[in-house]
Design goal:
WxxW_domain, CILP1/CILP2, about 150 residues, signal, 3-stranded antiparallel sheet, single chain, MUC2 protein, secreted, 2 helices
């Protein structure tokens, strides 16, 4: 079971730096909070701090909100218009649904019988919608003979 965090805001956009932006990435969160206990992010929700009830799409900003990295907003990707008259990122915050980094919450690794001593895990990624509170679905693998 994943547990939703409170809203997290570890980065503030610098409006005077065209190469800056707002970076609520997992890397930045762990830098600021080394004891953050999130083993795996299952889902993510992103919102603008000053406009919490508006979808990011309605704000007119180009923002990446992804379960693999967190939130990335680059000032250089913004255009004049939208909710603010300047081409800079708003200040965003994220909430993530985490599998806690505790032994009782982690999935038991599956083992396969091979001639090697370790098995390589396979991972897949799903790009979620820009802002969501519903769980993401897991892709179904299909076999197609060639």
């Amino acid at each position: 079971e994943c547990i939703w965090t409170d809203w997290i805001d570890v980065s503030y956009p610098d409006g005077s730096d065209r190469n800056g932006g707002d970076y609520e990435t997992f890397e930045n969160i762990w830098k600021k909070y080394p004891s953050w206990e999130c083993a795996k992010v299952e889902n993510i929700s992103c919102r603008a701090e000053k406009f919490p009830d508006q979808s990011i799409a309605d704000l007119g900003q180009k923002v990446e909100c992804d379960v693999n990295v967190g939130l990335i907003c680059n000032n250089k990707d913004q255009q004049i218009g939208g909710i603010i008259p300047m081409p800079v990122c708003l200040n965003y915050e994220i909430s993530v649904c985490c599998t806690p980094n505790k032994p009782e919450c982690l999935p038991t690794p599956s083992t396969t019988s091979t001639t090697t001593s370790t098995a390589s895990p396979t991972t897949s990624s799903v790009s979620p919608p820009i802002s969501t509170t519903a769980p993401t679905s897991t892709p179904v693998e299909t076999y197609s003979p060639t």
